[in-house]
Write a structure and sequence with these properties.
Elements lengths: L2 E6 L15 H15 L3 E6 L4 H6 L1 H10 L6 E4 L2 E5 L5 H8 L16 H4 L5
Parallel strand pairs: 1-2
Antiparallel strand pairs: 1-3, 3-4
Helix pairs in contact: 1-4
Length: 123
């Protein structure tokens, strides 16, 4: 089974798409992760502020943090290979690396339950 592991910088929530100024790049990335998950890919996502032990337990992540500092985050792995460091990969790149066919349908990537609630910044 393919596994995507994401080591995010410190964020307010697990997806990083909450609040009034949610970054479109992060929202698109969250949508790509959801597409991968629905295709059977295991997705593990860690946030520095909430799960710091995960960053120390992964030798590659720890080494990058030691040598480059937090600017190397986010780090995105597919399997054991780093597919992106310092920014989020595009939907196309992430899904291609994970072996998932991109159906072109984007999910509601907000941390809220519906598009209506997303527009109210419920997070």
């Amino acid at each position: 089974m393919t596994v995507i592991r994401v080591y995010d910088p410190a964020q307010c929530c697990s997806t990083g798409v909450c609040g009034p100024d949610a970054d479109d790049t992060i929202a698109q990335f969250a949508s790509a992760l959801e597409r991968a998950r629905k295709s059977g890919v295991e997705v593990d996502r860690f946030t520095l502020g909430h799960q710091p032990a995960e960053y120390v337990q992964n030798a590659t992540v720890k080494s990058l943090l030691d040598s480059e500092g937090i600017d190397c985050l986010p780090i995105v792995f597919v399997g054991d290979a780093i597919v992106s460091k310092g920014d989020y990969p595009s939907r196309t790149k992430l899904l291609e690396k994970a072996g998932v066919l991109d159906d072109g349908i984007t999910e509601n990537a907000s941390c809220c339950a519906s598009v209506e609630k997303a527009s109210t910044n419920c997070c």
